[in-house]
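hey so i finally got around to running both of the ones u sent me last week. sorry it took forever, my laptop kept dying halfway thru and i had to restart like 3 times lol. anyway pasting them below in the order u listed, first the sequence line then the structure token line for each. didnt double check formatting much so if smth looks off just lmk and ill redo it

first one:
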Amino acid sequence: TDITVIAPSNLQHPPDYDPKASDLAAVADADFILLAGFEGFADRLREAAGSDAVVDVVATEYFPAALEAEVLRLAALMGLDEHTAMHNIEHYKEHWDMESQRVQDAIAGKTPVVVSHAFTGVWAALAGLEPVGTFGPEPLTPTKVAELVALNPTVILENSHMPAGADLMEATDAVMLQMVNFPGDDFDLKLVVTVNADILIDGIG
């Protein structure tokens, strides 16, 4: 329950946050420093952590099986109760299944051809869809745009936090959906699933 969040959740791309001195001081007494591994400030946090803190890179996944494995790993790392962790995971898995069914019911009969950002494929899976191609996170080259256009996509799943598909959008008649990968101020992963389910239903259904 004693958790300090360094990067504000209202940033478009929180990993780009530049920590203040007070942020770095806050981690000096930490027992654990959790990183996603792609934060620009990761090295500074490690330096500020001191010798006693355990620095751990967390796999940031929304797939239920992957999230379950990571939560149980963190529970073991921190010496926490596995049963409580599993209780939380079961709630998440039930929510994922419910929202996945809601999306699939709403788009039943549709046959979207999906191209997704490298970090939004999970939301295609939520809809029971398989992307025919991916792009990002690096900028699209003309060759890559041509390759993806040839797939005749009708839906592009963009990453709203680090968009890379503008050139692809201009070259197709596809609908671009801005998918969300970071939770808001409530830090609720289940709400992220619901938000993206709504986006998929509005854009495809």
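and the second one:
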Amino acid sequence: DAIEENPREVQPEALLAIRSDVARLTMLWHEQIHGLRDLKRCHSFFPVSSGAHTQLRDLISDGGRGLELLAQMENRLRDLRQHQQQFLQESTNRRLNMLAILSAIYMPATLIAGIYGMNFENIPVTQLSYGYYIVMSFMALVVAGHFWYFYWRGWFK
């Protein structure tokens, strides 16, 4: 239930431990049923009351139902593990998507800063007394424009 409500609360190791316990229980269950079948086969050679044969048959039948339940539990655990992995993958994808968006927003401003950081004499706007403010305003405008575009497109949700 905790995995379905919030997959972050359950550690993957805990789910794998439960899965290995179920696998061990399934192996033990198989051995028990095999032993009961051998016992039933041996009892057919000896004169035993019909009640003992009925009990052995019932035990083997119950063991088969138990194996079916264990198989269902293994399938359920496999599905829960896949759900948990899918949730963690989606979370990682969202984080990487956000990093890509942020790098796309700041990349043009970094390019402009890199170009104006070069030591050339004939770079436009540098000769003006207010050139610094023009370049900074342009970089802020580019960043704000990218931010608005990505927000408008719903990429931050």
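quick thing i noticed on the 2nd:
The chain has a mean pLDDT of 82.
anyway thats it, ttyl
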